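COMPLEX REQUEST
Ligand: adenosine-5'-diphosphate
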Amino acid sequence: MDKIRRASVTVPTADAMRALGERIGRELRPGDFFGLTGGLGAGKTVLVQGICQGCGIDSRQVLSPTFTIVASHQGRFTVHHADFYRLGDPDELYATGFDDLVNSESAVLVEWVDQVPEALPPEHVRVHIEGCGDAERRVDFSFTGGRFAGRFTWMQPGDASDDVPALRAQSGEAEK
Ligand SMILES: Nc1ncnc2c1ncn2[C@@H]1O[C@H](COP(=O)(O)OP(=O)(O)O)[C@@H](O)[C@H]1O
Ligand SMILES: [Mg+2]
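STATUS: Structure written out below.
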């Protein structure tokens, strides 16, 4: 069984969400898969825009791909941005050829991954954003798989059940 490492970040503004994404994007590697969840307007697309920016993509071209299901961008490597919001069932997803996009040459960022959780490869990062409107957001990460060992360790260890103030500077690895 793969160990899951959790981390949690409090994000006060949309700009801070973008900055968080950018920092993640600088560390992003081909083969990484991020599955995002959280309500409408939580900030999934803003976070994805930041990640893409950090990966060398002009984030102005990163829009909500709701109607196309997947949009592909070229940065340091290819980043596929998908949105499963309107997907009815897994077959509809596989009909788009999504399976072929999940490979070691490109990264995949999926909004509304819970619509088709089967799409998550064995090693992946789940990102859940809590909060809406102008309120601050709480972003919970869970890293599954050895490929994430020693990476993103600047994030504060924790999960939604911890009520510690976030954005503590120092961090480490917490195995749960
Ligand atoms: N702390 C915050 N983090 C992220 N977005 C925020 C924050 N505060 C306000 N917002 C706003 O919330 C909206 C999030 O929209 P979006 O990223 O499209 O959500 P989603 O893709 O989850 O539906 C944006 O208009 C953004 O400016
Ligand atoms: Mg979105």
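REMARKS: Confidence is low (pLDDT under 50) at residues 161-176. The longest helix spans residues 14-27.
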